[in-house]
Design goal:
It is a multi-pass membrane protein. Pathway: Protein modification; protein ubiquitination. Keywords: Membrane, Metal-binding, Peroxisome, Peroxisome biogenesis, Protein transport, Transferase, Transmembrane, Transmembrane helix, Transport, Ubl conjugation pathway, Zinc, Zinc-finger. One of its GO terms (molecular function) is ubiquitin protein ligase activity. It is a single chain. By secondary structure, this protein is mostly helical. The protein has 2 domains: 216 residues, no CATH class; 56 residues, Zinc/RING finger domain, C3HC4 (zinc finger) (Herpes Virus-1, 2-Layer Sandwich), CATH 3.30.40.10.
Length: 279
């Protein structure tokens, strides 16, 4: 049986649909917690998105069923052998999909701690390695956007968890094939890829030119950059989850998704605080 791989528009449409249902599930769980007046509610708010996503995919993908978004777009997920992914592969995919960014942060923070405490490295090498790990941590958003731009170009893997596990999407019906928007997505992907690579090299150049003797000084200087535009922050503001961006950058981001770009917590534009005297 020939397989027809889903196009970028199909996969994006499916993902957006899934995010709507997960958001609805998140709000329902949040309402229940508020009604029951559960203690440690602030801490629990950070866990609820994980519970909502896990529950949603457990009821669908884990039983080899389509998610509501996949059903809406008429696509189906297959592994590298063009078979339905087994439960182990789905677990790996879900862990990376939900907690991939947290694992990334933990890994490089652990590496930074080991480097900073190492007695076998000379100071120059230690400073260079600390700069590299800090650069990779602070530019996590740009790296994720690079992957997204590449997805727009080749249309293969929607997110990094799909690429690692080899899960791709195929159309259930041949007549659903539609290449009308593929070219537009490729143009968008190439433009954004060029811009992001340029921004990354620009940040790397400015970052490598900063010679500091301590890790603390380096981190304080580099944290003045906005993780969305990769430039020094303008009209600095803070979200309810404690992350700092340019005022225009975070509001532009919230037009497309109501989540913090770093921790994925739900953000309402009205709760963003403008830090008027913040340096």
């Amino acid at each position: 049986m020939p397989f027809y791989y889903a196009k970028v528009a199909d996969i994006v449409r499916s993902s957006q649909r899934d995010e709507l249902f997960i958001e609805s599930l998140y709000q329902d769980i949040l309402s229940i917690c508020k009604t029951l007046n559960i203690k440690n509610f602030i801490y629990l708010r950070k866990v609820i998105p994980i519970i909502a996503s896990s529950w949603y995919y457990f009821l669908t993908s884990f039983d080899n069923l389509q998610t509501l978004g996949e059903e809406y777009a008429g696509i189906l997920r297959l592994d590298r052998d063009k078979k339905l992914p087994n439960k182990l592969l789905h677990i790996i995919w879900l862990v990376l999909y939900i907690g991939g960014e947290s694992l990334y942060d933990r890994l490089f923070n652990h590496v930074k701690t080991n480097i900073a405490g190492s007695t076998s490295l000379v100071d120059r090498t230690k400073d260079d390695l600390l700069k590299l790990t800090t650069f990779l941590l602070d530019n996590k958003t740009i790296l994720l956007k690079l992957h997204q731009s590449w997805f727009y170009i080749d249309g293969a893997y929607y997110n990094i968890s799909n690429r690692i596990t080899g899960i791709r999407y195929v159309l259930l019906r041949e007549w659903l094939q539609d290449d009308s928007s593929t070219r537009s997505f490729k143009i968008l992907g190439k433009i954004s890829l060029i811009y992001l690579v340029y921004s990354l090299f620009q940040q790397a150049a400015s970052f490598s030119s900063i010679r500091t003797s301590t890790f603390t000084q380096e981190t304080v200087c580099y944290k003045k950059l906005c993780t969305l535009c990769a430039e020094y922050r303008k009209s600095t503001c803070a979200t309810a989850c404690g992350h700092i961006y340019c005022w225009n950058c975070i509001h532009d981001s919230l037009r497309y998704q109501q989540n913090c770009p770093i921790c994925r917590e739900i953000i309402h534009p009205g709760r963003i605080i403008f830090l008027q005297n913040f340096q």
